[in-house]
Structure formats: C-alpha cells, structure tokens
Amino acid sequence: MSHRWQKTLLNAASTIKQALEIIDSEAMRVAVVVNQDGHLQGMVTDGDIRRGLLKDLTLQDPVALVMNTSPVTALVGTHKDSLVKLMEKKEILSIPLLDASGCVVGLETLHSALKKPQYPHPIFIMAGGFGTRLRPLTDNCPKPMLNIGDKPILEILIRSFVKAGFSNFYISTHYMPEKIHEYFGNGSNFGIKITYVYEEKPLGTGGALGLLPDSLPKDLPLIMINGDVLTTVNFERLLNFHIEQDADATMCVREYDYQIPYGVINGEGNKITSMIEKPVQRYFINAGIYVLSPKVIQSVPKNYKLDIPTLLEQHMLEREKVLMFPIHEYWLDIGRMDDFKRAQVDINNLGLVK
C-alpha cells in the first residue's frame, strides 16, 4: 500500500482541475473523493475527466460531476495476492481500502501490489525432528522432506517465505541432515541463502537458537518456525506487528475448540447450581511460529537444551513484552498421519505451490 495515498484525497466540491493536478502529480494516477468524515464517495481517473470535458464540462466544474460513484473497493487487510487478482479481473490500476465503517484508510495500486518487498530479516526453520508419529514414512526420510503434493513440506514452507520477500534462511537439522543438504544445497537454486546448524543431540524446541552462527544479523528480529507447518499466514504482517509493538517475542496462536461430550454439572455440596449440555471450551494453542528479538536469541547458551515456552517465560518476567499474534489463516501442524493425509487434500486449494 502506498504511503502517499492521503495526497490523493479531495472532497466532492473540489474542482475537476484540482483532481487533475492530483492525478498528474501523484504516482497513483487517481483522485479519491471522500466526505468530511472520510467515507468514500467516488474515484476519479484521467479517463473520467477526459470524458467529462468531451461533454462540455469545464475544469472549474465540481469533481462530483465526473467521479465514479461505485468504484471497486476492498477491506483493509486484504492479502495483496487477492487485490492483484481483483484489479486484473476488473482491469483497474488501483483500489481504495476501507475499514468496516466505509472510511478510506489506504489505497493499493497494481504497481505497488506487484512489487515484491524485500526483507533482510532471517528465517530460522526447525527441521531436526524424528517424525516418529509418521513412521514408516519417516524411516528413511526426515519429516520436513516428505512430499505434500509434489514438493517436500520444507520446500513449500521456504517458497512461502520467498514469495513474501525473505531470502536469508537458517535451517536446524539433526535427523538425516544429508537429505536436506543434498536437496537444498546453499539455496542458490532457489534464489536464497541457506545456512545450516546441526544439533549433535536434540536440544528441545528452542535450544538450536544457541547454535546460530555469527553471520546472523545482530540487530534484526528473527522469524522462527517449525519445519512441519503448512500455513498461509501473512509473514509480513506478523513481522510488522512484532516491530510496531516493540515486542521481545511474538508467538502465533491458533484458537482451538474442545467440546466436552457430556452435560457438565456445577454444584455446591449436593445441590446442583447449573447444568450445561456439552459445553465448548476455547483455548489459544501454540502454532509453532515465532518472532524473536535479538536479546531473546542471544540469551540462549550454546549446546543448551531448552524449550521455547521456558525461554519465553524467562523473558515474560523482564518487560512483559512477550505477545501473541492470533492467526485466522490456514494452519496445519503435520504431526500425525491424519494431518499428513489432510495436507495432501488441502494443498491444491492453498495457492502455496505452482
């Protein structure tokens, strides 16, 4: 989304000349008409003005006479891929982004949406697990290298990050590391850089952080993710949330519902006070995706067995800046055989592979 979109705004009483000046001076090539409360009233392009002038309107006439009062819009937060598809389908070059009340809060252009951002922030993928619950599939193959569709889980995950603009990868290995090394090499065939760290013995979900080399950027947060996760999470939005909140650590969480299959009885002594038939309990569960700031990474000793919850609990006591980021996008932890089978069905509809 362009950061200069506010410069495209004007009101319905503005002149056609004023709209033309905005269109000529701003890269978005459009003027956005709003009322005093910021609600969208219309859009104006160079073509709209030319058609108006051909109908004998003058540059001093109000822009309301030429604006498109039913422009294509989208809700703020809509994924860029969806915006690109919509603009290409409608053959338009820009879309105003609205909040739930109809106020204009941004403007996405086709040029901006197609321009892939580049992030120097490192990605750390945990790919050392044994995958015992997926045996016999993992007897001769590390779990992240199992195919979902026609590509290994790890490749699908890496390509998701590459698509979002990340290129600096670190991969933690332990079980059959040679299978991963042989397939990905140094990452050059994928247009990225891959650095491997090797756990001589399993160090828990967080211990591998202590093995990261000196080449790791010292001043940038790191995105850490389990190597068996299939997801469409917006990594750009996750990273921006972490930075904007000045967080020490951010954990992605997923809402999980558990329905008790019986009627639950509450009481005092032998007196029943309430009865709830098959209540649903809702929890947030750890999604295996984190953003960690340098101070958190640097606090992990080398070759020290440590789980992520323990690490985060240590930092929770310091600044109370360990935050959670609820995810509503597709997410699947491929830990069991039924998860693996489900992923084979889901993959074709996720837009993660081509």
Automatic annotation (TrEMBL):
Residues 1-59, 67-123 form the CBS domain. The keyword Transcription regulation does not apply. Keywords: CBS domain. Pfam families: CBS (PF00571), NTP_transferase (PF00483). It comes from the Bacteria. Gene3D superfamilies: CBS-domain, Spore Coat Polysaccharide Biosynthesis Protein SpsA, Chain A. SUPFAM superfamilies: CBS-domain pair, Nucleotide-diphospho-sugar transferases. PROSITE patterns: CBS (PS51371). Transmembrane segments: none annotated. This is Nucleotidyltransferase family protein.
